[in-house]
Input
Amino acid sequence: MFKRIVKCQQGVCTESVYFRYNSSNEDNFGQAKIFWDTLTAQQKKNLELNIVESLKDAAPFLQVSERTT
Output
Protein backbone atom coordinates (compact mmCIF):
# COMPACT_ATOMS: atom_id res chain seq x y z
CA MET A 1 0.00 0.00 0.00
CA PHE A 2 1.36 3.45 -0.83
CA LYS A 3 0.20 7.02 -0.56
CA ARG A 4 1.15 9.93 -2.76
CA ILE A 5 1.88 13.18 -0.97
CA VAL A 6 2.25 16.52 -2.72
CA LYS A 7 3.86 19.34 -0.77
CA CYS A 8 4.00 22.90 -2.05
CA GLN A 9 6.20 25.60 -0.60
CA GLN A 10 6.72 29.03 -2.16
CA GLY A 11 5.17 27.89 -5.43
CA VAL A 12 7.38 24.82 -5.77
CA CYS A 13 5.56 21.50 -5.48
CA THR A 14 7.22 18.16 -4.87
CA GLU A 15 5.56 14.78 -4.95
CA SER A 16 6.63 11.89 -2.75
CA VAL A 17 5.44 8.34 -2.42
CA TYR A 18 5.29 6.88 1.07
CA PHE A 19 5.03 3.16 1.65
CA ARG A 20 3.36 1.90 4.80
CA TYR A 21 5.16 -0.97 6.53
CA ASN A 22 2.86 -3.83 7.46
CA SER A 23 3.88 -5.30 10.82
CA SER A 24 0.77 -7.45 11.32
CA ASN A 25 2.76 -10.66 10.91
CA GLU A 26 5.38 -9.76 13.50
CA ASP A 27 5.63 -10.57 17.18
CA ASN A 28 5.53 -7.13 18.77
CA PHE A 29 5.52 -8.38 22.36
CA GLY A 30 7.97 -11.29 22.53
CA GLN A 31 11.11 -9.22 23.01
CA ALA A 32 9.45 -7.09 25.70
CA LYS A 33 8.36 -10.25 27.56
CA ILE A 34 11.87 -11.69 27.44
CA PHE A 35 13.22 -8.41 28.85
CA TRP A 36 10.53 -8.31 31.57
CA ASP A 37 11.32 -11.88 32.61
CA THR A 38 14.98 -10.98 33.18
CA LEU A 39 14.16 -8.19 35.67
CA THR A 40 14.13 -8.56 39.43
CA ALA A 41 11.03 -7.56 41.39
CA GLN A 42 12.61 -4.20 42.28
CA GLN A 43 13.63 -3.52 38.70
CA LYS A 44 10.07 -4.29 37.54
CA LYS A 45 8.69 -1.84 40.10
CA ASN A 46 11.19 0.84 39.00
CA LEU A 47 10.25 0.33 35.35
CA GLU A 48 6.55 0.61 36.19
CA LEU A 49 7.14 3.85 38.08
CA ASN A 50 9.22 5.28 35.22
CA ILE A 51 6.48 4.48 32.72
CA VAL A 52 3.79 6.02 34.92
CA GLU A 53 5.92 9.13 35.43
CA SER A 54 6.41 9.48 31.68
CA LEU A 55 2.71 9.10 30.92
CA LYS A 56 1.28 11.34 33.63
CA ASP A 57 1.34 14.38 31.32
CA ALA A 58 -0.42 12.59 28.46
CA ALA A 59 -3.69 14.02 27.20
CA PRO A 60 -6.56 13.08 29.53
CA PHE A 61 -8.38 11.09 26.85
CA LEU A 62 -5.33 8.84 26.55
CA GLN A 63 -5.15 8.14 30.27
CA VAL A 64 -7.04 5.18 31.67
CA SER A 65 -7.63 4.97 35.37
CA GLU A 66 -9.20 2.22 37.43
CA ARG A 67 -11.04 3.67 40.37
CA THR A 68 -12.69 1.79 43.14
CA THR A 69 -15.65 3.28 44.96
